[in-house]
């Protein structure tokens, strides 16, 4: 009884790292997690904006690090909350039979490599933009071997991490 | 208290089989059987059909 997945379902599954059926139980839990994340984010934005206004009135220079602090708070605060809840409720666990286990494992490795390649390219372009080595233009950064090695190492570490995480979600059942 | 587990074991089918038959994850069947999740009416009907019974027998307490 499998129906074709819509783009929004694919997006939700990809965002929360759900592998398998997105049924009504999982959907209701994800809705709950999403609502909580929104409330946390909303309150944080209100409070941090208030602080920013107060601090800005004292000395505008103090706001220099505000975007970076905000980014870290959002990624580590809300992001970690979502990861923790999804793991706790075992929503990302994919159960496979012994017969399908090897096939699923191969699929998982292929998917991890694809994700790692995609992220590596994004990272490579990004570090070339940011001009980490201070060597000049975007194009000169793009062909800088240090950036290439940096991106390749990042890709290997990210790919290995993704594979391990995805692998831990695979559960063999009888 | 529902009788999903009772009907399923009578039919000698696994949670996995039942789950794939009605298009949900095995964990969802497990949650329903342990009364940790209240399924929607739509899912209740699917369950009843898959287990060859009706909603009264499956979910109504005597």
Relevant terms:
heterodimer, A: 174 residues, B: 62 residues, mainly alpha, 434 Repressor (Amino-terminal Domain)
Structure report:
The complex is a heterodimer of chains A (174) and B (62). The longest helix of chain A has 35 residues, at 24-58. The model of chain A has no long low-confidence stretch (mean pLDDT 85). Chain A has 2 domains: 1-92, no CATH class; 94-174, no CATH class. With 174 residues, chain A is mostly helical. Chain A has 6 helices and 2 strands; from the N terminus they run αααβαααβ. In chain A, helix 4 runs antiparallel to helix 6. Chain B is mainly α and 62 residues long. Chain B has a single domain, classed as lambda repressor-like DNA-binding domains (434 Repressor (Amino-terminal Domain)), CATH 1.10.260.40. Chain B contains 5 helices and no strands. Chain B is globular, with a radius of gyration of 10 Å. The interface between A and B is medium-sized, with 14 and 17 residues.
Which strands sit side by side, in order, in the main sheet of chain A? 1-2
The main β sheet of chain B shows up as:
none
Mean pLDDT over the residues of chain A: 85
| Largest β-sheet summary of chain A | 2 strands, parallel
CATH superfamily of chain B: lambda repressor-like DNA-binding domains
User: Would you identify the regions of chain B where 5 or more consecutive residues have pLDDT less than 50?
Assistant: none
> What is the CATH-assigned architecture of chain B?
Orthogonal Bundle
Helix content of chain B: 55-70%
Quaternary assembly: heterodimer
Q: What is the strand content of chain B?
A: under 5%
Instruction: Considering residues with a beta carbon less than 8 A from a beta carbon on another chain, report the largest interface and each chain's count.
Output: A-B, 14 and 17 residues
- Uncertain spans of chain A: none
C-alpha end-to-end distance of chain A = 22 Å
N/C terminus separation of chain B: 10 Å
Annotation, overall tally of beta strands of chain A: 2
